[in-house]
Amino acid sequence: MVIIDALAFLGDTIYWKLSAEDLIKRMDKNGIDMAVATPPPPGPDYTEANKKVYEAVKRYPDRIVGFFRVNPQYREKALKEARAAVEEWGFKGFKLDPTNEAYGITSRVVEGVMELARELKVPVYFHTGDSIFSPPEGVGEVARLYPKVTVMMHSSGIHAAMSQQNIVLATGPLGGPRFLDAVSERFDPRRVVFSTCVPIGFPELELRIVELSTLSGENKHLIMGENIKRILGL
């Protein structure tokens, strides 16, 4: 079974340092084949941090996939860099974090990123579930306004995802076994991906949670790698 981590944080921050080599060592230890990497907070300017992710993707193209971290408050500068990241660097999606960049998820600054994602046909992964800046319901509203964009967020958004078919939910530190049991009972497993948020989260724990869940073998296969492969065209 192919295992792909749909969200890992790669780079230097005031909280930690995680190099590409460190990330791959952690992946190898846990049998993870690939990881989607993005820069960690805080910003506010992620130009250099995104370059470090790009360098990691160049060194390890079979192990690391890049998501460009966008701070939309930089307006045209951010959009220009985001376009180049997809068209020239081969990044596969965008990461938005209203909480750390202090903007409302339904504010006008998000529109440019969503329009660009629709044009380039790449997903947008929202940090959500832990602040008034980015509630799951707000992500649901953005997904409603942009039905042709794949919108990704943490599993706390399961209720919003019920009514918006373009929302994909990620397992991880904000999920746990109850979320996966809910998937078994009432949510489309084709719209769930595995994530660890390493080094914030622990791959060892997240893998164990999936192992102990009530998911069928077929659904585990989808969630652990096949869904994100399809979404990103890997």
Keywords:
234 residues, alpha/beta, globular, eight-stranded parallel β-sheet, 10 helices, 16% strand
The major pleated sheet works out as: 8 strands, parallel
pLDDT under 50 segments (min length 5)?
Answer: none
Separation, N- and C-terminal Cα atoms: 15 Å
CATH overall fold name: TIM Barrel
Strand content: 15-25%
User: How many structural domains?
Assistant: 1
CATH class: Alpha Beta
Count of alpha/pi helices: 10
SSE order, one letter for each helix or strand? EEEHEHEHEHHEHEHEHEHH
Radius of gyration: 16 Å
* CATH architectural category: Alpha-Beta Barrel
Mean pLDDT: 93
Coarse morphology = globular
Spell out the CATH superfamily: Metal-dependent hydrolases
Structural class designation: alpha/beta
Total E-strand runs: 10
If you had to describe this structure to a student in words, what would you say it looks like?
- This protein has a single domain, classed as Metal-dependent hydrolases (TIM Barrel), CATH 3.20.20.
- The strands form two sheets. An eight-stranded parallel β-sheet has the order 1-4-5-6-7-8-9-10. Strands 2-3 form a two-stranded antiparallel ribbon.
- α8 links the parallel β9 (167-170) and β10 (192-193).
- It is globular and about 45 Å long.
- It has helices at 20-30, 47-59, 75-87, 98-101, 109-120, 136-145, 158-163, 177-186, 203-212, 217-232; strands at 4-9, 11-12, 17-18, 34-38, 64-69, 93-96, 124-126, 151-154, 167-170, 192-193.
- It has 234 residues and is an alpha/beta fold.
- It is 45% helix and 16% strand.
